[in-house]
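Q: Hi! Curious about what Peroxidase looks like structurally. Here's the sequence.
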Amino acid sequence: MTWIRQEDVGMPGIISSMSINPKMMEVVRKLNQAVSFGASELTRVQEESIAVAVHVLHDYTTADLDPQTRGMLDFAVKLTKEPTEMREADVITLRELGLSDEQILSVVGITCLFNFMNRLADGLGVDIGAERQQAMDGWVTGPARDQDWLWVFKGERV
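A: Let's find out. The predicted structure is below.
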């Protein structure tokens, strides 16, 4: 359900919210496929961790994460919450943690993509609450399913 008219296209709410503009819907769908869902230079767990962390309602800071993953998520959250405070030093930190420039580009791309998707949902009134569990069940796959912190939302396990 959104605040604007939408067609039933059998896709998740955020994608369906663009159904009255098929060109936009297709471009955003292709962008999702090009930037994430296994297409980046990161592992699927890393992609999913960034996507969850930029929602900022998931507290990754108490999770038992390796330094590289924690640094990557710190970078993604800073880019989300304080984009004008980003500096070259932030990229250097990621390099020092072992990320390649291609992986750093993937971190930025995935962070931007999910911030875009969040703003789209917020701006159109997409109710993702009801779809959230179904989406998480289908989206969080493989080794990411074993990351307990990904399943805690606003302090409660989903």
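A: A fun detail: The chain has seven helices and two strands.
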